Amino acid sequence: MAGEEVPRETTVLLAAAPTHKARILDMSAVLSAFTTIASTHWSKGATGALLEWAEPVDPAILARRFKSIAAAPGHLTLHLAGQLLLHRTRNTLYLALSRTTAPTLESTGLPLHALASRLRRRPAGSTTVFVDLVAEAEVWRRVRYAGFTLGPGVRLYGALSPPPRRKRLVDPAYLTALADTLAGDPWLTPAKAHARAATAGTVEGRMLVAQEPLLRPGFVSPETDTEAALAPGQDVSPDGTTNDGPPLADDPVLRLPAEELDHLDPHTAIVAAAQDGRHAQAAAAAAIWEEAALRSHGPGSAPAVHWLEVRAEVAHLAGEPALSCQLWLGAARVRLDVGQEPSHPDVVAAVDRAQHQFHQITLAHQAWQLAPEVLRLRRHVPSVQKGALETLEARTAQLERSVAAGRMV
Question: Is the full-model pTM beyond 0.90?
Answer without folding.
Answer: no
